[in-house]
Design a protein that fits this description.
9 helices; 2 domains; mainly alpha; 0% strand
Length: 335
Amino acid sequence: MSELEESRTSLQRMQAFNPEDLAREDDLGRQLNFRDAVGPAQKLIDLYLQLSLETLTELPVKQLTDIKNIADADFNRFNDVLKFEIAGDNATGRRDTLLEQISSSYQGTFNTLHPMISYGMTRAVDFQRMENEARATIQSIEDQASEVTKALEESRKQATSILEEIRKVAAEQGVSQQASYFKEEAEKHEGLADTWRKRTIYVAIGLGAYAVLALFLHKIPFMTPTDVYQSIQLVTGKILVFAVIGYMVILSARNFLSHEHNTIINKHRQNALMTYKALVDAAQDEEVSDIVLLHAAQCIFSPQETGYAKQEGARGGPMPVLELLRRSGLKADGQ
């Protein structure tokens, strides 16, 4: 048998040995059993297990011989324990000697096997393969990172687009919400205008009825004047009553016209807000958008006539254009 086969056989025998077989508690009893040898034997076997059988094919003859000799020596100690008999002189001394040999054999075995174990572990580690795998892993990570970056960029673009759409919708909703205020005002003034229209008609009818009645007051017996003083009093009373009723007609008509005017103004402002967004989107020009914005703001925030006191017409009509020209001039100077 070659040195390689002999070393392989000896190594396999040590690696396959069960250290629990050394205890022999049933055979030798509590006093003389080898339970204390199980731990050191297991430690020794674990050392042999670190040496791969494939490594033996690459070792020189001297190292193979060393492995065979040390493995046989350790197995021989185990075999002595397995063959130990109580019969004979000084059984306790012989037992203690075997325990000491097994416990102390680890150092010698380690010194012999350590170089071969290190060599086998070095051979087992394929550094080139590890480098290739590491490079492949790094490349895979870079590819995945690139894909994730692209996905994030796409998500960012989509999020930006969605945000713009939300802003547009919010702006349109905001404009619609502001327009609803003017719609409510227009409806309120429209209702009041209808009320004052009816009141004006009723008071005007009353004034006409009084005018007709006043023509025949002097024919009523107890109101017929008997002298000039009573005639003056009758005429004066007619005039005062007629003036009061006439003033009520004028006041009612003015209230009607005022609320009708406010209805039209608020409807105009509502329409301006509802069409503002469409005009700005159609313009696609910052300066034109500014003009539309300034006109819309003037339409919304400029004071309106109350109907009770006459005001000058639309003040500051050209101001938005002048303001835009001033801003354009400042922008040109800055450039």
